[in-house]
Amino acid sequence: MEVRINDYPVEIMLENEKTVKEVVGSITEWINDKNLIFLGVDIDGKYHDSDEIPPVPLENINVINCLVQSRADVVYETVNEGIAYCDRVLSFLKHSGDEGIDADELSNLISGMEWLQEVFGTIAGLLKMDLDAVSYRDERVSDYVEKIGTMKHKIVQFMSEMKEEDSIDIEESLFFSLREIFGIFLVSEEMKRLIVDSIDSPDVLINSLREIKAMIPEQADLLEKIAIAYQTGNDREGVDNLFRFIDFLFTYTRTCYQVSPVFGVDLKEIVIDGISLDEKNRELQSLMNETMDILENNDMISLADILEYEIKESLGNIERYIDLLLEQL
User: Fold this and answer.
1) 151 pLDDT more than 80
2) Kind of pairing, strands 36-43 and 46-49?
3) So what's the pLDDT on residue 142?
């Protein structure tokens, strides 16, 4: 019998385990120690959720493939699902126009808002973040979560009294704000700490560094496009591309913070022109924090300047750092 984790073969010493359920139980202890989340198991090509592991005897099994995910990845995917949902709502509201919204569509919207409320609770729990302590545009993030509930109640009340000719005005601005708040989560200090605790395998890290290096020229062009979008008043395009850059920065930051514990390489010793990679990363993080503050204050001129000049310049020699880092690895 072969045991794998995320398709990678692993060597384990069986003691008294006689069934698949017992083997998975032993592996789950290791998974929890690594601050990972156990999703389920594939047994000879058949998937089972984590709470439905069958007590099949080991002699009847060829391959057990345990599927796990880091908490950082769960947050990252959940945030992106939240952003995608907000995009769908905004697109729907834009195209509903004079036709109005029927009862079925309103019911779907209510379900979606209930899901959004759960998403914010899930993210706050995984990041160990107090939503009362996080601000966006002079309000607490928890206030925006309450606004979801208020809007949901408004729609429910409207549906209980609606007539065929009635219509309801749903504010797009709330979903636009929620979309931006999701982006703030990805560059938060809480996310950074979670990334440090979420370790990938060495081969994944090395491949990730190579992919990041190949993506840097594209990111420099993207920063220019974001700046132009905000300078010309095309905020929606600017936000879309800004989230693309945040995605890149998430991958880069995650990879760098995992290099030290996996390979034992100190980023302070990766130095170019007197500046270490550790200092460079802190500079990028500081600039991104400043960017989110500017975005919250709706200062589009300053936003365009920091993206096009400061962040783009800071990103300029990252390729050289990655080359030096790969040499040491």
Assistant:
1) yes
2) antiparallel
3) 95
Confidence of residue 120 (pLDDT cuts 50, 70, 90): very high
Q: How confident is the model at residue 148 (pLDDT cuts 50, 70, 90)?
A: very high
Q: Which CATH number fits the domain that encloses residue 49? A: 3.10.20
pTM of the model: 0.62
**Per-chain mean pLDDT for the chain:** 85
Categorize the per-residue pLDDT at 71 as very low, low, confident or very high, splitting at 50, 70 and 90.
confident
Cα–Cα dist 64/10, whole Å: 10
SS3 labels along the chain: CEEEECCEEECCCCCCCCEHHHHHHHHHHHHHHCCEEEEEEEECCEEEECCCCCCCEHHHCCEEEEEEEEHHHHHHHHHHHHHHHHHHHHHHHHHHHHHCCCHHHHHHHHHHHHHHHHHHHHHHHHHCCCCCCCEECCEEHHHHHHHHHHHHHHHHHHHHHCCCCCCCCCCHHHHHHHHHHHHHHHCCHHHHHHHHHCCCCHHHHHHHHHHHHHHHHHHHHHHHHHHHHHHCCCHHHHHHHHHHHHHHHHHHHHHHHHHHHHHCCCHHHCEECCEEHHHHHHHHHHHHHHHHHHHHCCCHHHHHHHHHHHHHHHHCCHHHHHHHHHHHC
Task: Say how many domains are in the chain.
Answer: 3
58 and 31 in one domain? yes
Domain range for residue 211? 199-328
Instruction: Note the pLDDT tens digit of each residue in 11-39.
Output: 777 777 888 888 888 888 777 776 678 88
Phi then psi for residue 194, to 5 deg, are -65, -35
145 and 207 share one domain: no
Q: Provide the pLDDT for residue 130.
A: 94
Domain final residue pick, 22, 41, 69: 69
Query: Which domain-ending residue is among 126, 151, 182?
Result: 182
